[in-house]
Amino acid sequence: MIPLRCFLGIAIASNLGVEIPPTVTVQAAVREQARVGHLARAAQMLAPRSAHTATLLRNGQVLIAGGMRRNQEFYSSAELYDPVRDQFRPAGNMNIARVEPAAVLLRSGKVLIAGGWVSHNCTDSAELYDPSTGKFTATGRMTVPRGAPSATLLPDGDVLIAGGAAGDDPGGVASAELFRAATNTFERVQSMHVGRVSHTATSLRDGRVLIAGGRGATVTAEAELYDPKTGRFTPTGSLRQARYKHTAGLLGDGRVLLAGGSNEHDWQGTLNSAEIFDPRTGKFALTAHLTESRFKLPEAASVGSGCVLIAGGSKSAEVYDPRMGAFLIVPGELSKPWHFMTETRLADGTVLLAGGYANDDQGTRETWIYRQ
Predict the structure, then answer these.
(1) pTM of the model as a whole
(2) H-assigned helices in the chain
C-alpha cells in the first residue's frame, strides 16, 4: 500500500484502511482529495430540532418539519430554508406534532408527511404540505400506525411506505403500503419478508427499491427488493453486517453504498463498516471502513462525480469515492456528533446539514453547508 500523507493540511492518511493500487500516484490522490469539498456553518434554524424531516421543494427551498426539542417535547411547527438568502422563516404548523415521520416530495410539488411518533405512540395520520398556499392539510390515513417508516417515490408517482415501529416495541413491522397520489389514499400491498424499523430504502435506476437492514425481532442483515411492476418484495443477497440506524446512498454507477449503523448493542455497538450492493448481481460486498463509527444517520446525499456524503453521528463528515474505494475526510467539522440530523442535497449541488442531538437529548438549531 502506498502510504498517503497529510498534504497542504488535508488528511488523506493511510488509516483509511484502503489498498491503493500502485498506479495511483500521490499527485493523483491529492487531486482526488481536492474534490472532497468542505463544511461551513450556515444560518441557524428558528428552533432546535432532531428527528425532523427536510424536503427539497421545486423552488429550491427546503421544508423542515416536526422533530423534537428534547424527549417528549415534540414539534408541529415547520420552517423553510432559503439557500439564496441563507435564511430560515416560519412555514406554519402541521396538524399534529410528529417525531421521525416519513416525508417525500410528490410529482405535484406537494410534500407528503406520514406517520411518526406522537408521545409514546405511533400514528397512522398523514398530511400534505402545499408550497403554493403554505398550508398543511390532513389527507387519508395509513393502513397501520408507523413510527420511522421509509417512504420512497416510485416511477409512477406513487409512494412506497414500508416498515416502521408500531409503538414502544423497538422492533419494526413487516407491512407495507402505497400512497396513491392521484386519489390521496393509502392501499396495503404485500408485506416485506421481515419486520423492520430504522432500515434504509433506496431507489435503483431500474425503478426497484432496495430495502436493507433494520430491526425486527433483532437487528437483521436481510435485504429485499420491491418491484413496482409486480407489487411484490423479493429477497436478495444478505448484508455482510447486520445493521440498523445506518445510511445508504446511490453511487454514480447505480450501485448502493450502505455504511455505519449499529448492532443489537445500540450505543455500545456502533459500526464503521461499509458495503456496496450491486443490482446486477443482487449481492453485497465489503468496501473500505468509515473513518469513524457512527449511527442514527440521515440518508446519504449523492455529490459530484458519483460520490456520496456521509454525515452525522460524529463531528467529522466524509465522502466515499467509488473510484478510489475509499472514504475521505471532509475539511471542517460539526460542533458535536449530531445524531438524527438531516442531510439534503440542494439544487446547486451543495448539501444542507441541519439539527440533531449529541450525546444527550437536546436538539440544536445549528446547520452547515457542504460545498465542493
Answers:
(1) 0.91
(2) 26-34
